[in-house]
Specification:
114 residues, mainly beta, seven-stranded mixed beta sheet, four-stranded antiparallel beta sheet
C-alpha cells in the first residue's frame, strides 16, 4: 500500500521560512512526478509545485522565486523549501505523486502570521 506522509508544517512569521518534507512508502517513485498542492481557507485545492523524474520543476506563479521543490529518489522523498512566506501562503499543504496525481498525503498545516 502506497502512503505519502508530510511533515514540517507549523506557524511562522511573515518573511520566514519553512521546509516541508514528503516521505513515500510502499512504492518507489523515482520514475514518477511528485508535487505539492495547497488548500487555503475557503478555497479549492491548488497546484503549488511539481518535479519530474528528470528533475525538471514547475511552479505556480504565486510562489515562483520563493519556493523550491526538490527530490531525493534514493530516499523516496520530496521537499518543498518555502522562503519569504506571506499570510496568503497560509494553507494545508498536500504532497502528491504519480501520473496522474494518484497518491495523496493527509496534509500539513502552514500558518503565516503577521
Amino acid at each position: 500500500q502506497v502512503q505519502l506522509s508530510e511533515s514540517g508544517g507549523g506557524l511562522v512569521q511573515v518573511g520566514g521560512s519553512l521546509r516541508l518534507s514528503c516521505a513515500v512508502s510502499g512504492r518507489t517513485f523515482s520514475a514518477h512526478r511528485m508535487g505539492w498542492f495547497r488548500q487555503r481557507p475557503g478555497q479549492e485545492r491548488e497546484f503549488v509545485a511539481a518535479i519530474r523524474s528528470s528533475g525538471r520543476s514547475f511552479y505556480a506563479d504565486s510562489v515562483k522565486g520563493r519556493f523550491t521543490i526538490s527530490r531525493d529518489s534514493a530516499k523516496n522523498t520530496a521537499d518543498l523549501q518555502m522562503n519569504s512566506l506571506k499570510p496568503e501562503d497560509t494553507a494545508v499543504y498536500y504532497c502528491a505523486g504519480g501520473d496522474p496525481w494518484t497518491y495523496w498525503g493527509q496534509g500539513t498545516q502552514v500558518t503565516v502570521s503577521s
